[in-house]
Amino acid sequence: MFSDPDAAYLALCARDPRFDGRLFVGVTSTGIYCRPVCRVRTPRRENCRFFGSCAQAEAAAFRPCLKCRPEIAPGLSQMDSSHSLAQAAAQRIDLAVHQGLPVALPELAARLGVTDRHLRRIFLVHHGVAPHDYLSTRRLLLAKQLLTDTPLPVAQVALASGFASLRRFNAAFAERYRLAPTQLRRERQAAATAIAADGTGLRLAWRPPLDVEGLVGHFERRVVEGVEQVDSAALTLRRTLAWPHRDGLLRGWLALRLDPARCEVRLQVSDSLSPALGALMQRVRHALDLDADPAQVDAVLARLPLPLRPGHRLPGCFDGFETAVRVILGQQVTVKGARTLLQRLVDRLGEPIETPYPRLTRLFPTPQAIADADPATIGLLGIVRQRVRALQALAAEVVAGRIVLERGAPVEATLQALLALPGVGDWTAQLVAMRALAWPDAWPASDIGLMNALGSRDPKHITRIAEDWRPWRAYAVMRLWHAIETKELP
């Protein structure tokens, strides 16, 4: 149960979006649970029960609302998981569910450095449900979203949601939601048909405020032609993507549009990427930092020597390897110079692809393509020998699986593995951890932009200044960079 029901009811009455994803209300008169931003008539106080997660509400036998759709609410942030072992476990379960992977609790406990029994105990205390119940809820909510927003066959939805068989999926869905999957699909068939005309459509929510201009501007200033297209006026971003999957390398495109009025992202995905829809949804959430809690971050950013931009985000990435390549090529050059080198690399090693968008024509080079390339060929693009060695060493480690560049990977181990590569120093490793691993406390102390912004050329001095910004120093980095790039600072 939510710790302060009276305060929770006030948040519900105000439809306060700051509590979206952290508060859910079960209505005893209907048996339905909703997000606090649901637009239906506010229920009576005596009919409300409050929960901190969907899993708690479903464990109490409430069903998800078909109007506000709890499955699209913002999820757990990296900030939460860095402070709580139980949150870290929940986040890893979420990632596995969206990737369609099985979850073995003993293996998860071992990765977190605790026993299976201890993890179950702290998970129950923190989340109010057992890990198995939490896992079941996340799988069913993912399935509900795919049934509602996409025309995928029910069997494919079951597989993408992590169910071993269609029979088990149908039974679990009917038991929990008192609906057959096909029944929900029929109710949403008109919407799914409209969406299918232009690929697969999905909705992803965020907690306001969100600095939309700053977020879109970040991607726009770093666009690589052929791979990406950003329209800041329309708040849209499109790009090509190659996605590793158990069925092989999937190639396709995605397009997203930010809708500030509804605090949602509208996502379109090509049919070729539909087998990886769950994982792609999580990756988009990471790329746009949709799970951030701005109330906590803004309290820290207010201490910067800059005007506060409420809702400033930490942009992540759509492809961890691509981001690491961008960082390496950005060593000791400007953003514009790095874009030039990236463009040459894409034009030379990127695979051509057909899309509905004339400006999206190439995929970013895969780790295998860069690892197998002749070093001399890469050098002819204007990339210095040291960077060529760094790129190919990184590509080889990623291909071999010894370096994993995605949210949820262990930060310290990944930093050490990156630092062991030729041509990779602390600045590069910190930026990769910040963007690819979503580490909120990354701090590239030797960055010349930070030194200029903070008025010192001493990395130790600016690190001492940044102590006041823990544990969200990475957000401070992005805010200072934004101020420099937009001429807010000289």
Explain this structure:
This protein has 490 residues and is an alpha+beta fold. The chain is globular. The chain has 24 helices and 9 strands. Helix 4 crosses helix 13, helix 15 crosses helix 16 (335-349) and helix 15 (320-329) runs antiparallel to helix 19. It has helices spanning 5-14, 54-59, 78-83, 85-98, 105-112, 116-127, 131-149, 154-160, 166-177, 181-187, 189-196, 212-220, 277-288, 294-301, 320-329, 335-349, 367-372, 375-379, 385-400, 411-419, 426-435, 448-454, 459-466, 473-485, and strands at residues 24-27, 32-34, 48-51, 63-64, 200-205, 228-231, 236-245, 248-259, 264-269. Among the domains are: 5-72, DNA Methylphosphotriester Repair Domain (3-Layer(aba) Sandwich), CATH 3.40.10.10; 78-192, Arc Repressor Mutant, subunit A; 199-291, 2-Layer Sandwich (TATA-Binding Protein), CATH 3.30.310. The longest helix is centred in the first third of the chain and has 19 residues, at 131-149.
